[in-house]
Backbone:
């Protein structure tokens, strides 16, 4: 395990770079697929208490649409792509052209949900494969799952393994947004959160060349 | 009129209050929110636990409120210290959902049911009756405990509010 108290600025910068490369690749994949410009913000990497993390996504009770998957391999963890539920509906309308889709009338066999799943696959796959290639570590995404529920309830799933060792987590957080071509403001804004297991850091830091000397 | 104040319990956190203060914790998924209370004295304690068993802790200085077993021990000890009477203790609990359905062998996916079982086990050990509960399922919950009526309000994203 890795004691987060001793994490260095260099190591945080290396994680930020990895997040940047991952989200950049995901944004490119999405842009190609939708033939549309995707904006990406500079990623943030921070060490925060579980409660701060939950506050940072709008609070424990805030409803969110989440595409969630687990990451297996050398650098295991959990990954979330979070959207406001109403914006997730817009995103689905945009992808499928079916404007009737809404969370209140969807069922599990809804083809629109499959489209959102597939989008999750593409986004997560391109995000993780870029980091994998960059750091030369093996990171395998699981099949994504979708949930629309309270932010705290969703995120806690990504904190279980971390909680066995700490009350703090390193968060790699990147926002991408899809602009409406006819308007100035964003149409859909999604947030990637990568929460690495404590076991992942040693491996990742070695691979990124920022291992601390003991 | 006495102004009501609601104290917020975070994740892996616990608090004790007396009337007119009330208790609330938001966004329970696989976590369990448990309330132990003395209705006559209107004293209540709430814990928001993440994991079932502190013996799994890999930390040297662990947060006891994170684990069902240690959080319950502390909650009960603190209630007694605040003058609540053990013979009147009752409990209500909510949460322990399975938010995502994938993954077969992964023990982590059963964390909700394991949290429920661990809290109920502790309540049995202390011989505290469970007055009501709203557990399991696959949705998040916010709970609010009223120390006067001892009602536990359950809020979800898609269902009607309920008081148990």
Residues:
């Amino acid at each position: 395990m890795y004691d987060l108290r001793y994490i260095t600025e260099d190591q945080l910068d290396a994680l930020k770079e990895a997040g940047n490369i991952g989200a950049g690749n995901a944004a490119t994949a999405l842009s190609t697929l939708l033939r549309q410009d995707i904006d990406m913000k500079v990623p943030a990497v921070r060490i925060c208490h579980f409660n701060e993390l939950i506050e940072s996504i709008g609070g424990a009770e805030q409803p969110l649409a989440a595409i969630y998957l687990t990451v297996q391999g050398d650098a295991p963890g959990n990954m979330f792509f979070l959207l406001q539920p109403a914006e997730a509906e817009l995103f689905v309308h945009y992808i499928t052209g079916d404007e009737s889709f809404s969370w209140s009338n969807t069922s599990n066999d809804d083809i629109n949900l499959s489209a959102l799943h597939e989008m999750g696959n593409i986004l997560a796959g391109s995000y993780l494969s870029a980091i994998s290639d960059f750091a030369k570590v093996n990171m395998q995404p699981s099949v994504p799952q979708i949930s629309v529920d309270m932010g705290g309830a969703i995120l806690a799933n990504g904190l279980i393994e971390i909680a066995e060792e700490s009350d703090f987590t390193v968060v790699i957080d990147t926002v991408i947004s899809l602009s409406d071509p006819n308007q100035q403001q964003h149409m859909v804004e999604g947030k990637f959160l990568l929460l690495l297991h404590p076991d992942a850091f040693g491996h990742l830091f070695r691979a990124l060349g920022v291992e601390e000397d003991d | 009129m006495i102004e009501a104040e609601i104290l917020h319990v975070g994740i892996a956190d616990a608090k004790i209050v007396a009337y007119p203060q009330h208790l609330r914790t938001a966004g329970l998924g696989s976590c369990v929110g448990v309330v132990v209370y003395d209705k006559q004295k209107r004293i209540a304690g709430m814990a928001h636990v993440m994991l079932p068993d502190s013996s799994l802790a890999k930390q040297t200085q662990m947060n006891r409120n994170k684990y069902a077993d240690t959080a319950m021990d502390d909650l009960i000890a603190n209630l007694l210290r605040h003058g609540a009477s053990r013979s009147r203790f009752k409990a209500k609990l909510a949460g322990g959902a399975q938010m995502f359905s994938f993954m077969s062998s992964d023990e982590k996916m059963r964390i909700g049911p394991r949290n429920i079982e661990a809290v109920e086990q502790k309540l049995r050990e202390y011989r505290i009756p469970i007055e009501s509960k709203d557990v399991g399922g696959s949705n998040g919950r916010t709970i609010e405990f009223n120390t006067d009526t001892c009602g536990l309000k359950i809020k979800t994203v898609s269902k009607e509010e309920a008081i148990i």
